[in-house]
Amino acid sequence: MPEPQLILRNPDLSRLPPLKIPDGFSLHCHREGEEQNWEDLIEEAFGGRYSFDRFIRNGGGYRPEYVLYVEKDGRDIATATAVESSRFPGEGWLRMVGTRPCARGQGAGRLVLTACLHSLFDRGYRSALLSTDDHRIPAVGLYLSLGFEPYFTDPGHPARWEKVMGILKNR
């Protein structure tokens, strides 16, 4: 049985950095007909195929405006979705945060995450969670820089977090 993903929680969305869209980037929400685009972006980001239809059926009160994209040069390069957590009712949940490998390190992930966090705050959420994998070290560093903290939901989490934090410290 696989280990449960690591959980991070931002306990105070009132302390978000301002949303600044750098030159060359734009933000937009999901539009009808972009399902294949989302699936392709996520496949590039994670190396596996995911169904958009299945994704939106998995709860959280999905609406098209909750799925955000960062676009550069006419191509969507990052995405994230901001819904309510079914696992932690009353808290925001960031799902399927992904950036195309060719765009990593350009600020697209930070931009889409910041936009999603602002969306959650504007909708009345005061905290947010997300899940990730131990090996996604750059993403974990980004999450921590945006006010997220390790959130232990499994007995194995403390030891795994200690290892992840050690890797981050030595980068």
How would you describe what is shown here?
This protein is an alpha+beta fold and 171 residues long. It is built from 5 helices and 7 strands. The chain is globular, with a radius of gyration of 15 Å.
Can I get a quick summary?
This protein has 171 residues and is of the alpha+beta class. It has helices at 35-46, 52-57, 108-122, 137-145, 157-169, and strands spanning 6-10, 25-29, 67-72, 75-84, 92-99, 128-132, 149-151.
Q: Number of helical segments?
A: 5
Q: Sum up the overall morphology in one term.
A: globular
Sheet/helix structural class = alpha+beta
Low-confidence stretches: none
Question: How do the helices and strands line up, and which of them pair or pack?
Answer:
Blueprint: E1 6-10, E2 25-29, H1 35-46, H2 52-57, E3 67-72, E4 75-84, E5 92-99, H3 108-122, E6 128-132, H4 137-145, E7 149-151, H5 157-169
Parallel strand pairs: 5-6
Antiparallel strand pairs: 1-6, 1-7, 2-3, 3-4, 4-5
For this entry, give a set of tags.
single chain; alpha+beta; 32% helix; 25% strand; globular
